[in-house]
Design goal:
The chain is 12% helix and 41% strand. The protein is mainly beta and 86 residues long.
Length: 86
């Protein structure tokens, strides 16, 4: 049986990249034509997003790049911005 979660149940969940690295926290969803278009992920302390984005507060991840939503959110590695050490 398919279990459907409401958006309010997903807000605040921790998001991880598919290889297990902490990505950030789900902060919101962008809805278009009554469907989820993308997820707003907040760059929190010690998250991959915080390290790779620098001063940015977060990123929009297309819903097609989300592999699973359950106790945590799993995001495809391709959705992660590339890390630039400069």
């Amino acid at each position: 049986m398919l279990k459907v979660k409401s958006i309010s149940e997903v807000l605040g969940l921790r998001a991880y990249v598919e290889d297990g690295e902490y990505f950030g926290n789900v902060e919101g969803a962008v809805i278009d034509s009554n469907k989820i278009d993308s997820w707003r992920i907040r760059a929190t302390k010690n998250s991959f997003l915080n390290e790779s984005l620098g001063g940015a507060k977060g990123a929009l991840v297309p819903h097609s790049m989300v592999k699973a939503v359950g106790d945590v959110v799993i995001v495809r590695k391709a959705a992660a911005p590339t890390y630039n050490q400069e």
